[in-house]
Amino acid sequence: MDSLEEDMTEMRILDNKAFASSRYIKFGAHDKMKYLWSAIKSTTRPGSFPSMLETAKIFIGDMKRVMDWPGDAMKTGTKKLIHSVGATGKVKFVPNKHPFSGMFKTEM
Questions:
Q1: pLDDT given at position 16
Q2: Most buried residue, 35, 41, 70, 102, by CB count within 10 Å?
């Protein structure tokens, strides 16, 4: 087991707190993807749609608490109200030559 695996095992990979820890935040993108994907694959339990009452919380709840949470997973105990049911997969973006800038910038 490499040190990153030991770190994530120690942090209990299935606990969302691990994905907000200062240790995890310092990981590079490749390592973060490795451990996120491991956690995603560890469960086949689908999400559930929120009730109508829960859906109303989107408009009256404090989203700042959710948006300001560090890391790559929601705070443990937070009910996911938006996009709570869906599919997850890995993709690779391979651009063709184009004039776009920013994250889509390619050599022309």
A1: 74
A2: 35
